[in-house]
Amino acid sequence: MTRHRDKNRGAGHKDRNDTGGMIWLWGTHAVKAALKNPERKCRKVLISQGADPEILQHAARSKVIVENTDHTAIERALPRDSVHQGVALLASPLEEQDVASVIEAAKRPCCLVLLDQVTDPHNFGAVIRSAAAFGACAVVVQDRHSPPASGVLAKAASGALETVPIVRVVNIARALEQLGENGFLRLALADEAAKPVESLDLKRDIVLVLGSEGEGLRRLTRESCDMSIRLPTTPAMPSLNVSNAAAVALYAWAIAQRT
User: Fold this and answer.
1) Residue 98 vs residues 76, 159, 166, 175: alpha-carbon distances, Å
2) Which residues, 6 or more positions from 235, have their beta carbon under 8 angstroms from its beta carbon?
3) DSSP-derived pairing of the beta strands 42-48 and 87-91
């Protein structure tokens, strides 16, 4: 699948020392994955003593400049409190896709994850990581209410940002309408839903729709879905963090494909 470059939104996080539309990525998994991704244009690696030596190998294969430095110099290049593990990479943002291109390129059946105003980059990144782990085709978000594809998101996604496209849409309801027209079953995850996820036939194209931590799904988003479903949680703890809920639902979909 063609990967994505978001030239404007990816650069939306104003990292210190960011130049020429490039962004800083950091952390071992994020940097290694970016160096291996042919869709990334990588300019420079900063690496300190004790960092993963595989990064040097990947940088050499990609013919990327390597600067041996120390933790302090890396910290100066990055946003404050970045957990960089002794490595940072200056690279281009990735190219984005639209809903139609994802549907066209996807191996079927396809599972999409749609996030309704999930604004925390760590939760967003964790969802992307789960999407990669369980074979989802893409993560769909609203353009104005989601974090940029910055180094924070890449670190939280632990390398998965390089393999799972992020599709940014202007209107969530319209995107769901488009997916429904293309045969996707649109499933809203809600704690109070009567129908459990395990009761459904998931061997088909689906969209898992999850809302923000505090307010959940907006009314119009829920009304744009075919049905609401719940996870098999206990009354003692009926709700999950959005990234955990996404992981459980994605697991249910992945298992269904193997039965």
Assistant:
1) 35, 21, 9, 10
2) none
3) antiparallel
Adjacent-strand bridge partners of 208? 113, 187
Domain spans, the chain? 23-91, 99-257
The number of beta carbons lying within 10 Å of the beta carbon of residue 82 is 18
Could you read off the pLDDT tens digit of each residue along the chain, which spans 259 residues? Answer: 334 433 333 333 344 444 568 999 999 999 999 999 998 999 999 999 888 889 999 999 989 999 999 989 999 999 888 899 999 999 999 988 899 999 898 888 999 999 999 999 999 999 999 999 999 999 999 988 888 889 999 999 999 999 999 999 999 999 999 999 999 999 999 988 989 998 999 999 999 999 987 778 999 999 999 999 999 988 888 889 999 999 999 999 999 999 8
Name the architecture of domain 99-257: 3-Layer(aba) Sandwich (3.40)
CA 165 to chain centroid:
7
For domain 23-91, is the CATH number 3.30.1330.30? yes
- Closest to 89 measured CA to CA, from 72, 70, 66: 66
Instruction: Give the strand pairing for 185-189 and 227-230.
Output: parallel
185 beta partners: 206
The candidate with the shortest Cα–Cα distance to 154, out of 34, 255, 64, is: 34
Which pTM was predicted?
A: 0.87
Nearest residue to 150 (alpha-carbon basis) of 7, 4, 1, 10: 10
3-class DSSP state of 152: helix
Q: How far apart are CA 120 and CA 116, in angstroms?
A: 12
Q: Measured between alpha carbons, how far is 35 from 65 in angstroms, rounded to an integer?
A: 12
Alpha-carbon span 103 to 99, nearest angstrom: 6
